[in-house]
Amino acid sequence: MNLEFADGFLHLFFYRKIIFDKMNGKVVCITGGNGTIGSALAEGMAKAGAKVFILARNEEKSKAVVAELQSKNLDVDYIVCDVLDQETTEAAVDQVLEKAGRVDVLINGAGGNMSGATIMPNQTIFDLEIDQFKKVNDLNLLGTVIPTKAFARPMVDQKQGCIINISSMSAISPMTRVVGYSASKAAVDNFTKSMAVELISKYGEGIRVNAIAPGFLVADQNRALLMNEDGSLTDRGNTIISQTPMRRFGKPEELVSTVLWLCDDKSSFITGIIVPIDGGFSAFSGV
């Protein structure tokens, strides 16, 4: 065999073992796993060797995502689950344990926003719809608290587990308009730190809780806010790009490597942090 070829083959083999197989044998559950970010993380975790369960309310959408990922020979399944319902969430835990025997990673990806919880340029605080503000807070905060409580139980029994929450740039520096979303994501940051300390102090260092704070990605939920129908940027989209040193929006798949790093057993001394993945947005003062 050509030595140069053999050396390249071995390099590729060990690179795959180190990078792509680091989740081999682990069981990963992703709430909101049929969405833009959730499905990208599901694919990334499965490519790294994990058995992935997508948890979401919309069964048809979950089926479509799972079918696409299974067509790539990835070990992905779905379970219908409403993260705001404690009973169905606990039932989802039971189903995962029945199918896979354990839970190694929970990614709390369910979340979102509603128009009534925003303040548009022609509106004021007095136009804020309290019922929708409550729904946004429930979805982002309770939708993180309830799955954390449910999936932490088997992690406590195993004495090991990793929980990763999804924060936002709007939690670090509140943005105009999305007042409900910003407030709820700031609460997720606080909950992340609180649970990191709580679980360590009560159940030992084997259970870690961290979060990622994505910058601006173009997804189904915010596409109309950032881009016009012809593909050009809206005023808000232009403002965001002007404040992002990389001068572009992020891609969902660019979140995967950071999540893999946080899940890695070698990251055992990392807990209670929120990692920005934002193209430099949080580092830029605007000057």
From TrEMBL:
<protein>
    <submittedName>
        <fullName>Dioxygenase</fullName>
    </submittedName>
</protein>
<keyword id="KW-0223">Dioxygenase</keyword>
<dbReference type="Pfam" id="PF00106">
    <property type="entry name" value="adh_short"/>
</dbReference>
<keyword id="KW-0560">Oxidoreductase</keyword>
<dbReference type="GO" id="GO:0051213">
    <property type="term" value="F:dioxygenase activity"/>
</dbReference>
<dbReference type="InterPro" id="IPR020904">
    <property type="entry name" value="Sc_DH/Rdtase_CS"/>
</dbReference>
<dbReference type="GO" id="GO:0005975">
    <property type="term" value="P:carbohydrate metabolic process"/>
</dbReference>
<dbReference type="GO" id="GO:0016616">
    <property type="term" value="F:oxidoreductase activity, acting on the CH-OH group of donors, NAD or NADP as acceptor"/>
</dbReference>
<dbReference type="InterPro" id="IPR002347">
    <property type="entry name" value="SDR_fam"/>
</dbReference>
<dbReference type="InterPro" id="IPR036291">
    <property type="entry name" value="NAD(P)-bd_dom_sf"/>
</dbReference>
<comment type="similarity">
    <text>Belongs to the short-chain dehydrogenases/reductases (SDR) family.</text>
</comment>
